[in-house]
Write a structure and sequence with these properties.
With 143 residues, the protein is α/β, with parallel strands linked by helices. It has a single domain, classed as Rossmann fold (3-Layer(aba) Sandwich), CATH 3.40.50. The protein is built from six helices and six strands. The longest helix has 13 residues. The radius of gyration is 15 Å and the shape is globular. The termini are close together.
Length: 143
């Protein structure tokens, strides 16, 4: 883990956590909580998780509600929107750009001096410090 006091979990991490199939992932998130780092809940991540929760998924709803009490929610400010716009402009030439939400999540992490933690490689091209938790027990850092 970097020296950054803040961490932003990507949607991919929270979704896997809610599925509760990867015990190693749950342990890693528990260690983050115990480390007393601020775990920030990005508005885009909140939206992406919320829209995917089915009404009948009561256990997942309860778990996500519990996580929201532990994580720190901070709204976007103008600097986040500007940062995302600059990142998009820098990559406009790419045919397969990252999703719009990923630009916003990356800019949010930068704004709050946070490291991203994700399970997929969506943030590689966005030049934000990110730790990728690919599979149980695997943690590789890409800057």
């Amino acid at each position: 883990m970097s020296d950054s006091p803040n961490v932003v979990l990507d949607t991919s991490i929270i979704i896997e956590l809610l599925r509760r199939k990867d015990l190693a992932l749950g342990q890693k998130v528990a260690e983050l909580v115990l480390s007393r780092r601020a775990i920030l809940l990005c508005p885009v991540v909140f939206f992406e998780v919320e829209r995917g929760l089915k009404p009948e998924a009561k256990r997942q709803r309860a778990l996500f509600d519990g996580l929201q009490k532990i994580f720190e929610y901070r709204e976007f400010d103008k600097a986040v929107w500007e940062g995302a716009s600059k990142k998009w402009a820098a990559l406009r030439h790419l045919r397969n750009k990252p999703m719009t939400g990923d630009f916003l999540i990356a800019a949010y992490a930068e704004r709050h001096n946070a490291k991203m933690i994700a399970r997929d490689r969506d943030f590689v091209r966005l030049a934000v410090p990110c730790e990728y938790w690919d599979s149980p027990g695997d943690s590789s850092l890409h800057q």
